[in-house]
Each structure stands twice: as structure tokens, then as C-alpha cells.
Amino acid sequence: QVQLVESGGGLVQAGGSLRLSCAASGRTFSSLAMGWFRQTPGKERDIVAAITWSGGDTYYADSVKGRFTISRDNAKNTVYLQMNSLKPEDTAVYYCAADPGPSLVVEIREYDYWGQGTQVTVSS
Questions:
Q1: 82 - beta bridge partners?
Q2: pLDDT in the model for residue 77
Q3: C-alpha span between 81 and 95 (Å, rounded)
């Protein structure tokens, strides 16, 4: 089992920045591929970014490319999502997810473990 706990969400004005953190426990963190997803009411949960267990490869949704950066610190068992130039349409609940394995994982159904989510609200 893997436990994931997100933090760092909040209210920010458009153009501002936030950094989300996801702390993992229960399994060797460096054996996990990680991803960030987001969801708004009535819509599907969509991938935002993903990173391999080594941190050597990343993926970004087109809507966040150039603004968001995913990174990880395997010594701290934590994955981060740095969000810059935030827009009102970035408002959502952001979820951290983990999948045991080395590959970059972008399909939601492949993730085995999920955090409880953290709310990000961007005001205009």
C-alpha cells in the first residue's frame, strides 16, 4: 500500500504561483511513477503532469506546458507541482497519484494509488 498526502493548495490571484507537494509513504518512493491530475465538478479527472521514478522523463498536458513543472525528491519521498502564471481555468481539486513501475504513466486507469486532493482556486 502507498499513502499519498497532498498539500499546498489555496486561493491565489490570476498570474500568481503555487507549489503543490505530495508526500508518499508505505513503499519505496523511488520505485513509483507519479502523476498530478485535476478535476472540476461534473467533469472527468484529467492528467496535468507525470514523472518517471527516476525523474528523468516528464509529461505535461498542453494546457499547462510552459507554466507548470513537475519534479520529485526521492530522498524526501515527495513529488512537487510548481504552478506559475495561474489562470482562473486552473481552478480545480488537484490529486497526486502513484503507480509502481519505471515508466511514464499518463493514463488515469493505470494509477493504483491516489491522494485525497487539494483545492486550488485562482481568482480573476
A1: 19, 69
A2: 96
A3: 11
